[in-house]
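S.,

Sequence below, as promised.
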Amino acid sequence: MPAPEPATGELRVRIAFSAINPGDTKKRGDWLGSAMPFARVVPHSDGSGVIDAVGEGVDAARVGERVWVYGAQSYRPFGTAAEFTVVPADQAVALPDAVSDELGACLGIPGITAHRAVFADGSVRGKTVLVHGVLGAVSSLAAQLGRRDGATVIGTVRRSDDLVRVGSSVADHVVALDGADPAQAVRDLAPAGVDRIVEVAFSANVDLDAAVAAEHAVIAAYGTRDGRPDFPFWPMLFANLTVRLLGSDDFPAEAKRQAARSLTAAAADGELCVPIGEPFALDRIAQAHERVEAGARERVLVALASAD
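The prediction came back faster than expected:
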């Protein structure tokens, strides 16, 4: 394919690493009956690389700048799984010298979703935040961002065997959901209840969430196992809880920009830990998708020829 040309307000990035998110495999798999949105799609929304061309209205001085990219394939046909991609200028964020291309590629959708889950309702300084699935890409970043802001973070894992896998830099406390009484375990750590809940499995965890939430707490959910979940309405009503649902493609533009600034600063300060697997070559992209579908514990990247 010919290299894409940036239009007004856009720039072109020579991609070094393209990151695969579960959403990328779901789009390919016709998840929820969604049809292919364009005649041809280059997948993946996140990546990192170097700006090599700009369109009208974009500062030419940005050419040569290392950047991380988000939303490349959100409502657009051509994502980051190619040597070049074109994105609106705001969606290519300057990457500090201290931050690797590999880490930069991992910040996009997971990081922006994590930031929105934690901060959409204000600062969490001095508050207690419960983060479910703290070993996952979004939740791990949510926990780290919450701690950076001054929150006490309680993480959960599905199995007791996973407790040792959560680093002390990610969460202050960790609770296994297969324990005898995980709700009581959370209450023991937060007797007054938790103020924010970052939720990856709303339908599975909502009863626990209602049991441990403080008055006026917020449940910020970005995933669920059951697409039509039941929940304990009256206990949640009397606690004046808020349920915030998070669809990352459609966050307000300013929220995305704020998240990008916060993620970049945290990465530059060395305060974001992301496990990253050995990158796949582009001609092994099918195996890379299969790795994600198999439930990879680490972030899965595709290395482009331009990274050599």
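The two ends are 20 Å apart (CA to CA).

Coffee later?
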